[in-house]
């Protein structure tokens, strides 16, 4: 920085300014702790690996259909000619079996032989001359591929999974659940060189990122409502993810649920209702892994990522996975610099009946010049054109972020039909930042002028969370049930420190000047609030007519208790304690085996919003409120692609920040209606597609005094479109090309609908080349985001952020 700074912290500082050596030492410490365990199994790699035992619940039916279900549940590939199963019925398969054992039971007495293949797949044949043998026809292949975590296998193309987790409802196939879900695989993350969660979820039209890279944090929008980073789940638990951004390096899957998920996941810490995002962390796979990836990000951020995994012990029941990341260099912002370090360790045990996992990760980031959020003057009648994405509108800012989390989960099969589970975790996160401000008449005008003042805003949060429950599978009068009981609790303490620099400096978003330096005593943050979120739930999924009708119902009794405190005196200033019961009703009807018609209704108590930093009543927490959703849709599985169409309506109280008084409050109700279209899969060998479109009708209703009644909800686009294509070129083996287009239409920027944020379209391209060098698997990747370097605004509430400029990402991945 080229201007004097006050000391970053006195002895009370919560985030000491660390040198690169401190970051490197953290990673080295984690690696040293993991190394002995990672190395121990090397001597045992030659031992035969025993097949894990899996739980199966496959109904009776035609043998061909039963084998198809078995391949998907077992996560294996079965190849057979359809005629060998023609006319044969199967009683199905229940209980826990090894993959080969279950297959032998299904084929007992049929005369069909099982021939294991070197790649782990199975070919089914009937010996020549045996009864039932007929003329050879084309082979039918049933693909599975579930990994060591027992996750649903990837769908055709490998970018999305066939199913995912739904909180207390457990794991479900996308065709069997009465919701619209998207489940991104590790392959999808690697192919786009995802750095954080935002790089993943942007692939679908009904999900948008509201903030830009190299900013303070990441906010998302699902079905027109904001979902903050702090409301992202980690292995099904809230409160354990960073309130700023989550590293992609720890992610095995990213599961996105559209619409309120209060019953499935409980109340989110910050009251998001548009949908749920859940991160599934990495586990050690069946094959040993040692992967080193070197990275480059423009302007000149260089980094490395080490990913190691091993299984060991009797039948490889124990697993360990380590991920370490370090990046350092100049960002795409003028004068911007980032220094980032992350270490993550995952342990797990998978026995015949007992499964256990432990995750621990810590990340530390220091940024000079970060992308700011900007307000506009009340006098503005036209949003000024976005400045260059390279421009630091508030020059001279500094930001420090730290997060540490530990979480564990235990599952035990009491019997083949009863499983009990418990999970819990702890997180501590803290931030220090320079907090530039330009409020009211001082905010950005139509010519880009503003008067900026400086401030310090530091914050912390400490969260403890846990869940216990049981899941039973049984049958009554020919109806199958999956009954789940659970109880959860989340306790969170938050605190902050704020100090304004006083005077303001005239500047311009197109030609910014340095912020005035801060002076004064930078004290430690003081407690601002304590929150307790607790609930009890019961759900049941009924399966009728050989799984062609699935009915899900449930109730969650919720309680929200909160105390607010003065950060100056420590005295309690307000509190509330409210409770309500949230219902869920959903149905799936399958008129044909590949078609699902579904509908759902959910309603839930949601924690009230918190007045954001920068408002006159910053930190004020509002009472909880109820939201509700209606949704209906149709999904069709064409074998290599899944298409879906859905309509929805979500109602919730409307939150606004008055542009004159700068007070955050609730005014009336926001009703979002929408139509979603999507398709994904592998249209032909080597050609993968993800396409989606969402059309919104978002309206303000029941506003105070009728002001803004019937207006469009601010910050919700009228249309969004996504198209992504990934193609394996036929002329160069191992070379794949990809391209992506993301479009967001114009949208009202204020509740009065007097100004609009312009539409924008972003184009991305990429390539990867998979080869072998000296017997080692090597993947070279190159991606360019925002190819045409378009300047545009992203909006979150009444604030706007300039999108990142053209960004080049390069990496070289080698498996040892």
Question: How is this fold's topology laid out?
Answer:
Elements: H1 20-39, E1 53-58, E2 61-62, H2 63-74, E3 78-80, E4 89-90, E5 93-98, H3 99-107, E6 113-116, E7 122-125, E8 140-142, E9 163-165, E10 171-173, E11 181-184, H4 186-191, H5 198-201, E12 207-209, E13 219-222, E14 225-228, E15 233-234, E16 251-258, H6 262-265, E17 275-281, E18 289-297, E19 299-312, E20 318-331, E21 337-350, E22 354-368, E23 398-415, E24 418-433, E25 449-476, E26 479-508, E27 526-544, E28 549-565, E29 572-592, E30 595-606, E31 625-637, E32 641-657, E33 664-684, E34 687-701, E35 719-728, E36 735-744, E37 747-748, E38 756-757, E39 760-773, E40 776-785, E41 793-796, E42 799-802, E43 807-815
Parallel strand pairs: 3-7, 15-17
Antiparallel strand pairs: 1-5, 2-4, 3-8, 6-7, 9-10, 11-16, 12-13, 13-14, 16-17, 18-19, 18-43, 19-20, 20-21, 21-22, 22-23, 23-24, 24-25, 25-26, 26-27, 27-28, 28-29, 29-30, 30-31, 31-32, 32-33, 33-34, 34-35, 35-36, 36-39, 37-38, 39-40, 40-43, 41-42
Describe the protein in words.
This protein has 816 residues and is mostly beta strands. The chain has three domains: 517 residues, Beta Barrel (Maltoporin, Chain A); 90 residues, Phage tail protein beta-alpha-beta fold, CATH 3.55.50; 127 residues, Ferric Hydroxamate Uptake Protein, Chain A, domain 1 (Beta Complex), CATH 2.170.130.10. The protein is built from six helices and 43 strands. The strands form nine sheets. The protein has a 22-stranded antiparallel beta barrel. The two termini are 41 Å apart.
């Amino acid at each position: 920085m080229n201007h004097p700074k006050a000391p970053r912290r006195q002895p009370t500082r919560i985030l000491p300014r660390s040198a690169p050596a401190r970051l490197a030492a953290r990673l080295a410490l984690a690696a040293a702790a993991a190394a002995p365990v990672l190395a121990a199994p090397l001597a045992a790699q030659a031992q035969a690996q025993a097949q894990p035992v899996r739980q199966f619940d496959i109904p009776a039916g035609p043998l061909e259909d039963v084998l198809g279900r078995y391949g998907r549940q077992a996560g294996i590939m079965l190849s057979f000619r359809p005629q060998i199963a023609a006319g044969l019925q199967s009683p199905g398969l229940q209980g826990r079996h090894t993959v080969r054992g279950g297959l032998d039971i299904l084929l007992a007495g049929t005369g069909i032989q099982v021939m294991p293949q070197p790649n782990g797949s199975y070919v089914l044949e009937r010996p020549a001359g045996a009864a039932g043998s007929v003329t050879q026809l084309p082979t039918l292949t049933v693909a599975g591929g579930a990994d060591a975590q027992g996750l649903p296998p990837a769908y055709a193309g490998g970018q999305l999974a066939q199913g995912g987790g739904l909180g207390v409802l457990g794991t479900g196939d996308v065709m069997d659940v009465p919701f619209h879900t998207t489940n991104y695989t590790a392959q999808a993350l690697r192919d786009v060189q995802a750095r954080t969660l935002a790089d993943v979820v942007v692939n679908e039209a009904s999900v948008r990122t509201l903030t830009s890279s190299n900013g303070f944090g990441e906010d998302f929008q699902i079905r027109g409502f904001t979902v903050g980073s702090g409301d992202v789940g980690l292995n099904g638990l809230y409160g354990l993810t960073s309130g700023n951004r989550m590293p992609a390096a720890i992610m095995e899957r990213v599961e996105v649920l559209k619409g309120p998920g209060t019953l499935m996941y409980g109340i989110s810490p910050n009251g998001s209702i548009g949908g749920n995002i859940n991160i599934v962390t990495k586990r050690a796979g069946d094959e040993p892994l040692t992967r080193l990836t070197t990275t480059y990000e423009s302007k000149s951020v260089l980094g490395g990522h080490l990913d190691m995994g091993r299984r060991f012990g009797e039948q490889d029941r124990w697993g360990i996975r380590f991920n370490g990341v370090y990046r350092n260099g100049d960002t795409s912002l003028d004068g911007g610099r980032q220094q980032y370090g992350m270490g993550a360790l995952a342990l797990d045990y998978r026995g015949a009946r007992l499964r256990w996992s432990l995750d621990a990760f810590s990340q530390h980031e220091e940024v000079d010049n970060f992308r700011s959020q900007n307000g506009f003057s009340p006098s503005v009648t036209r949003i000024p054109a976005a400045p260059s994405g390279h421009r630091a509108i508030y020059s001279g800012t500094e930001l420090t972020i730290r997060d540490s989390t530990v979480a564990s989960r235990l599952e035990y099969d009491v019997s083949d039909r009863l499983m009990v589970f418990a999970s819990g975790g702890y997180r501590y996160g803290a931030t220090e930042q320079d907090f530039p401000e330009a409020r009211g008449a001082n905010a950005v005008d139509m010519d880009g002028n503003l008067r900026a003042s400086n401030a310090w805003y530091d914050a912390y949060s400490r969260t403890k969370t846990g869940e216990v429950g049981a899941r039973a599978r049984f049958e009554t009068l020919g109806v199958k049930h999956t009954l789940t009981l659970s109880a959860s609790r989340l306790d969170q303490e938050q605190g902050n420190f704020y100090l304004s620099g006083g005077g303001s400096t005239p500047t311009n978003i197109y030609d910014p000047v340095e912020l005035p330096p801060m002076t004064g005593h930078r004290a430690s943050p003081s407690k601002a609030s304590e929150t307790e979120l607790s609930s009890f739930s019961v759900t049941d999924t009924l399966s009728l007519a050989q799984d062609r009708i699935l009915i899900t119902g449930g109730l969650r009794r919720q309680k929200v208790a909160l105390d607010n405190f003065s950060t100056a005196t420590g005295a309690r200033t307000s509190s509330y304690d409210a409770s309500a019961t949230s219902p869920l009703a959903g149905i799936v009807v399958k008129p044909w085996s590949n078609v699902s018609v579904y509908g759902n209704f959910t309603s839930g108590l949601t924690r009230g919003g918190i007045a954001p930093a920068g408002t006159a009543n910053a930190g004020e927490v509002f009472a909880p409120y109820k939201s509700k959703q209606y949704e209906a849709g149709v999904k069709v599985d064409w074998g290599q692609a899944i298409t879906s169409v859905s309509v929805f309506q979500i109602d919730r109280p409307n939150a606004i920040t008055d542009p004159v008084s700068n007070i955050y409050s609730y005014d009336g109700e926001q009703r979002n209606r929408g139509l979603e279209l999507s398709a994904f899969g592998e249209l032909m060998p080597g050609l993968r597609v993800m396409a989606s479109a969402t059309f919104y009708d978002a309206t303000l209703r029941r506003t105070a005094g009728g002001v803004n009644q019937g207006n469009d909800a601010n910050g919700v686009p009228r249309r969004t479109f996504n198209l992504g294509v990934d193609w394996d070129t036929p002329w160069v083996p191992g070379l794949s090309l990809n391209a992506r287009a993301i479009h967001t239409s114009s949208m009202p920027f204020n509740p009065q609908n007097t100004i609009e944020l312009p539409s924008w379209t972003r184009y991305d391209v990429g390539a990867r080349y998979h080869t072998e060098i000296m017997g080692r698997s090597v993947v070279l990747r190159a991606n360019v985001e925002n190819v045409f370097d378009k300047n545009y605004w992203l909006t979150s509430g009444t604030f706007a952020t300039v999108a990142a400029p053209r960004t080049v990402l390069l990496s070289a991945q080698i498996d040892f």
